[in-house]
Specification:
seven-stranded mixed β-sheet, five-stranded antiparallel β-sheet, 3 domains, 651 residues, Penicillin-binding protein 2a (Domain 2), elongated, Beta-lactamase, alpha+beta, single chain
Length: 651
């Protein structure tokens, strides 16, 4: 950081020193301190500096005039300025050198600055012997610090460290300077403040994607009335692309003013917002939680990666000690002299696996969704998380990683793998799909009460027959479903670099509970990222923990799962393709590119068949995806169309 100050006035310290030497050799001085040598006077001076009581020391100014100890005590405190309440550590450096009736010693001064920074230097102390043998200290402000003059004081300035960036998979900063427009109003040009507020409100509501939270203009008339006539009363800061949408509607409104600048922003307003978190001015809570670490005006990471890696990203602040002088109006101003500086340590970047093109496609796919929702995309070949998108919901809520919700029929992917592994069923084995199936008095049914009769297992899977899977549940045993889920990474302890819920699979329980768990109901809970990783494992043939943060690399990633049996996973892939070609996800048949495999899911979440979440999991080429819509109803109504928009954007 460079500081610009007015030029210093010339100094006359050498002249004053010469005058002092002449005076003390020509006159008899009456002193307060005695002893055998000047070292005792130096020690008494240091002890008095520390204690704030200098009465044991005699002082003279450079002209030889006596100075009261109280005045020296007061001047030391004034010169110390912002450091006055944390006195330095002081010691004498060696023995003073005596030349007839004058002597010069040296002292070591060490201040402890904020952040436990140490500032150490040495200063000479000149002394003169009076007629009674007492050694007296030549007092001047430079004794406290070399560049201090009378009327100066020391001031401490925090030097902020450059905050490092969160990087995408290519190593480019996700957050970078991007153009924005500050929209404001000049009160003197407004005749109808209420009417202006209404027209601005209508324009802001037309921005797409919608501004979240909405711009509150209810107090604009009062703010205009309270402001100075020529003030710029800021209303909102818009990204340039949002401003262009409504420029024609607001540019010529009476009193509107516009300021273009750049701010550190992600590529879009919704770009992985919950995952990335935000960087904001330090709050009162931040300052209270970490006193001495944060200072007012600091930029602090909140939530997501910015919060998790805040210490790494923000670096370490530096510190500067400058001199100040009181101006004509009584306020302190810098003199232009920096007497100490510890440079800040820049933050270190955090590199992720996010792919901007995939993330933009994910955000765009959820853009029109009004319900809480999430989309996670994982690269099949290496498990890299390519996109993490979240729809409407509380700010900072990363539903994609932390949701704990039933998977519904997407879990038939896990159940089918377990059944195939145990040779309990084959691809073409006939399995009855009645309208209802009862276990221990609990009746299970299919969506919209359909029945298929006795059909090949592949058809039960493609059409998502709940009753067929409920009937097959006993063949999985008490633990078969949980064991298969763990093969696909569910319930594992992941080290992803952020909080994540990896699932909880139903195990044991009553026959009715096991029947419900076989098609993703019961007590089984998952998150979208857990299902995306499980789906990638089916496509790859082996589960590997997803990767999100590459640097710093997580220290304890979960070990890879076992190789899936080809005789089990190949039929499963065949059935997941048939879900798209002839089953519940035929809306994805026409998506350009490589074949799409998948499984739909409709999950009841409160034992009320009318209340259902919507799911889709699947893959196309090297991209596996999981889509979740809270209270989304049928998968064909919400999750599948979102998936189609996402895959088409990648085509």
């Amino acid at each position: 950081m460079s500081l610009s100050y007015p030029p210093r006035r010339p100094r006359t310290r050498r002249m004053r020193n010469a005058v002092f030497a002449a005076v003390v050799t020509a006159a008899t001085l009456v002193g307060c301190s005695g002893g055998d040598g000047p070292e005792e006077s130096v020690d008494a001076f240091l002890a008095g500096w520390r204690s704030g009581d200098l009465h044991a020391v005699g002082f003279r100014d450079p002209t030889g005039a006596r100075i009261p100890a109280e005045r020296v005590t007061e001047e030391i405190r004034e010169l110390s300025g912002e450091l006055a309440d944390r006195p330095p550590a002081l010691r004498r450096s060696g023995e003073p050198k005596i030349t007839r009736d004058s002597a010069e010693g040296r002292i070591s001064v060490e201040w402890t600055l904020p952040g436990d920074t140490r500032w150490r230097y040495e200063r000479p102390v000149r002394l003169a012997r009076s007629g009674d043998g007492a050694w007296q200290v030549a007092w001047e402000p430079a004794l406290v610090q070399e560049q201090l003059l009378r009327g100066d004081r020391l001031a401490v300035r925090r030097v902020a460290a450059p905050r490092a960036a969160v990087l995408d998979a290519a190593g480019a900063p996700i957050v970078a300077p991007r153009p924005v427009v500050r929209v404001g109003v000049q009160p003197s040009e407004v005749t109808d403040a209420a009417g202006l507020a209404r027209r601005l409100d209508a324009a802001f509501k037309a921005v797409r994607p919608a501004i979240t939270p909405p711009v509150d203009l209810s107090d604009l008339p009062k703010r205009l009335a309270d402001a100075k006539p020529d003030a710029f009363v800021e209303v909102v800061t818009l990204r340039e692309e949002a401003y262009r949408q409504i420029r024609a509607r607001i540019y010529d409104l009476p009193g509107t003013k516009f300021r273009s600048e750049k701010l550190e922003l992600a590529p879009t307003r919704e770009f992985a917002r919950a995952l990335l978190g935000s960087v904001d001015p330090a709050t009162a809570e931040d300052l209270a939680a970490k006193p001495g670490v944060y200072a007012e005006g600091d930029q602090v990471g909140h939530g997501g990666l910015q919060g998790r890696y805040d210490e790494r990203l923000r670096g370490a602040a530096g510190i500067s000690v400058v001199t100040e002088r009181r101006g004509p109006e009584g306020t302190w101003a810098p003199t232009g002299t920096e007497v100490f500086r510890k440079d800040p340590q820049p933050g270190q970047a955090v590199k992720t696996t996010l792919d901007p093109a995939v993330q933009n496609a994910a955000d765009a796919a959820l853009r029109g969704e009004r319900r809480r929702s999430a989309l996670v995309a994982v690269r099949v070949s290496d498990g890299a998380v390519l996109a993490v998108a979240n729809g409407p919901g509380p700010a900072g809520e990363n539903l994609a990683f932390t949701a704990q919700v039933p998977p519904g029929s997407t879990f038939k992917m896990v159940s089918a793998l377990g059944l195939l592994d145990r040779q309990a069923v084959t691809l073409d084995a006939p399995v009855d799909c009645p309208k209802t199936f009862t276990v221990d008095g609990r009746s299970f049914k299919n969506s919209e009460n359909f029945a298929l009769g006795k059909v090949p297992f592949r058809t039960d899977f493609a059409k998502s027959c709940n009753t067929a899977f409920a009937a097959l549940a006993p063949k999985l045993g008490d633990t078969g479903l949980a064991e298969t889920g763990r093969m696909l990474g569910l319930e594992a302890k992941w080290d992803l670099g952020v909080d994540v819920f990896t699932g909880k699979v139903s195990t044991g329980g009553t026959p009715a509970e096991r029947a419900a768990a076989a098609f993703g109901q019961g007590t089984t809970l998952v998150s979208p990222v857990a299902m995306a990783a499980a789906t990638a494992a089916v496509a790859r043939g082996r589960w590997e923990q997803p990767k999100l943060v590459l640097d710093p690399a997580p220290g304890q990633p979960a070990p890879a799962g076992p190789q899936l049996k080809p005789e089990s996973v190949e039929p499963l892939r065949t059935m997941m393709r048939e879900v798209v070609t002839s089953g519940t996800a035929t809306a994805l048949r026409g998506v350009p590119g490589k074949p799409v495999h998948g499984k739909t899911g409709t999950a009841e979440y409160d034992d009320n068949p009318a209340n259902t979440h919507s799911w889709f999991v699947g893959w196309q080429g090297d991209v596996a995806v999981a889509v979740f819509v809270e209270k989304g109803g049928s998968s064909t109504e919400s999750a599948v169309p979102i998936t189609a928009r996402f895959l088409r954007a990648l085509a």
